[in-house]
């Protein structure tokens, strides 16, 4: 039977890598967004507003996916609004698809805020979970839009009879422009500014993150897990963590990132140096760098997301993720974290996004 994928958020870090993975393995693939991009060859764009049932009904009139991949979300000012908006987007989409009776499986991408709490109560002392983080750990007793999204998937699955999978990555490392959570590109931009201005590549985060163990998720490896879970019997109706599979300490990785750019690495010095502060006055600096090096994106804010990088690197605990459940179920793909960053930096340079 033909496999027809609908990716919500196909222009993002995860969605674009997923689209390439699906297309490379023979899937018919649609990418839904309010303003869909057409930079992935073979991806069929679908323009729709997830907050408008009428828009979805019209846009999906001739699309009957067998598999739905939810990789997008919308940031709002409060968690209550995050719940209303992001839960509503999932509910609207699955309701629009229900009359087609075509959907066999729905995959939802959330993240480690499932364990650490949402933005307005993120990783606060007194409510920190034990690590490594495991899928069987219970929900936190606080509002979280990830829980609302999950509940919408569960309710639609009970109504329509499809299977589901939940995927919980750590920080995503991959290429995308305009993404709200983009540590790899943010660090690449910061290192490039440091090189151009002679500033040290100063560690911006906490002592716990500098010395503690951590992991990240390459966008290519979550794409592979999403495709695996879409058809694997062992992945039906399960939640899975997804990270590269190795652990590292930032105190080990930071000098290696600095060396790639040829800049001086400065480690934790007893003070947190938030990137929002470090980059606050650099919009004109970056525009000048972009002009001199003929870069594709001169707007610093379209490339860097320092607020989210600060959130991750400023946590008061080390954070690493257990992959045992996924391994037992049959997903054994591995990715070197050091090379996740180096591959990204090389791609950013090839795409003329950094000098």
Automatic annotation (TrEMBL):
Signal peptide location: none
InterPro entries in UniProt: NAD(P)-bd_dom_sf, PRISE-like_Rossmann-fold
Residues annotated as domain PRISE-like Rossmann-fold: 66-355
Protein name: NAD-dependent epimerase/dehydratase family protein
């Amino acid at each position: 039977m033909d496999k027809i994928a609908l990716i919500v958020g196909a222009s993002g870090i995860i969605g674009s890598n997923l689209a390439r993975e699906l297309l490379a393995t023979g899937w018919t693939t649609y990418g839904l967004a309010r303003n869909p991009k057409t930079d992935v060859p073979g991806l069929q764009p679908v323009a729709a507003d997830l907050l408008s049932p009428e828009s979805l009904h019209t846009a999906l009139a001739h699309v009957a996916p067998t598999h739905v991949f939810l990789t997008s979300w919308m940031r709002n000012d409060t968690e209550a609004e995050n719940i209303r908006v992001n839960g509503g987007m999932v509910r609207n989409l699955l309701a629009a698809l229900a009359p087609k009776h075509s959907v066999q499986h729905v995959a939802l991408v959330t993240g480690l805020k499932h364990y650490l709490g949402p933005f307005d109560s993120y990783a606060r002392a007194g409510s920190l979970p034990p690590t490594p983080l495991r899928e069987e750990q219970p929900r936190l007793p606080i509002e979280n839009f990830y829980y609302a999204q999950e509940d919408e998937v569960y309710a639609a699955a009970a109504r329509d009879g499809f299977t589901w999978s939940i995927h919980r990555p750590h920080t995503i490392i991959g290429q995308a422009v305009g993404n709200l959570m983009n540590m790899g590109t943010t660090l690449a931009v910061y290192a490039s500014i440091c090189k151009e201005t002679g500033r040290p590549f100063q560690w911006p985060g906490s002592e716990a993150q500098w010395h503690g163990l951590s992991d990240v998720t390459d966008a290519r490896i979550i794409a592979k897990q999403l495709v695996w879970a879409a058809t694997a019997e062992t992945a039906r109706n399960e939640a899975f963590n997804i990270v590269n599979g190795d652990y590292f300490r930032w105190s080990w990785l930071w000098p290696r990132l600095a060396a790639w750019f040829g800049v001086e690495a400065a480690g934790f010095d007893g003070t947190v140096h938030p990137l929002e502060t470090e980059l606050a006055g650099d919009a004109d600096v970056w525009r000048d760098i972009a002009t001199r090096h003929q870069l594709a994106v001169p707007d610093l804010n379209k490339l860097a997301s320092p607020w989210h990088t600060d959130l991750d690197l400023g946590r008061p605990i080390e954070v690493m993720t257990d992959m045992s459940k996924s391994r037992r179920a049959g997903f054994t793909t591995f990715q070197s974290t050091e090379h996740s960053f180096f591959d990204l930096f090389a791609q950013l340079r090839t795409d003329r996004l950094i000098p």
